[in-house]
Amino acid sequence: MQQPTVVVLHDGDLPPGREAYERLADVRYVRADELAAALPGADALFLWDFWSTALAAAWPAEGGPSWVHIASAGVDRLLFPALVDGDAIVTNSRGVFDAPIAEYVLGLVLAFAKDLPATVRHQDGRDWRHRETERIGGRSVLVVGTGPIGRATARLLRAAGMRVRGLGRTARPGDPDFGEVLPSPALHAELAQADYVVLAAPLTDATRGMIDAAALAAMRPGARLINVGRGGLVVQDDLAAALRAGTIAGAALDVFAVEPLPKDDPLWELPNVLVSPHMSGDARGWREELTALFAANLERRVAGRPLRNVVDKRLGYVREDPS
Fold first, then answer.
1. Prediction pTM value
2. Whether 230 is catalytic
3. Is 289 an annotated catalytic residue?
4. CB distance 187 to 163 below 8 Å
5. What's the CATH fold of domain 98-275?
6. Helix 98-113 and helix 116-124: axis angle, to 10°?
């Protein structure tokens, strides 16, 4: 096929290793204010600036790209009506973040169990304070979201001796990673059984606000909530109230409804909360991996082969891949 035209949306920080896809296409690098003029006639759009909200307004009424790829696993910011209803294929960067996020979750579980934040605080104050800590072996974990990130997390936590169950759209007994997957309507019943609840689900109409006051009330008083999915999965005001009241023992949050988390947000000051700036998947080399993934998919496109990581635009996530 003729060399395709690829538009790359960036914010001034260009993809490292971009030579891998520049050899395959006529590439045009644009910022948000140039996007509308660049899209008509383009074959593909690479959203390197995956935080941008410019695409909906810039999307052409006709003649736009037939393929949109985002340098992110989540696509909730991307799926505006004209794109969802149109013919353009959407792909994401599924696979890049699975292992790093799983490791980050294990680190957070250990931080809670071994009281590492308090150790750092005591060290800062030169305060020699002996405490007893918890074992993680045998503790129960509910992983909400059974995609690749949830699966990688389940495998690692099981390897550490934890008892893991998953929660997804469809029940599956005998799952190799989760042991058992429970259906979404079982959320509150499963919350009551878990020492740790890990949110790794995509943000969709079905999952938005799923952890609200009622869900938090269903959790064990000693349970901890870990969110590495999307901020919108949690009603943050309800969570702050539950943490103050001791409804649950703690929360580790890497994603928030508004990012950066506003400086006056009460979550910053709660002693039983760990706040990190949306970094759980960003292990060294992640930008290069994102570029390589797009280049590999572009090579498939040029060769006429099916794309990988095709998003079901109605569901908001990847269902399965071609071989």
1. 0.95
2. yes
3. no
4. no
5. Rossmann fold (3.40.50)
6. 70
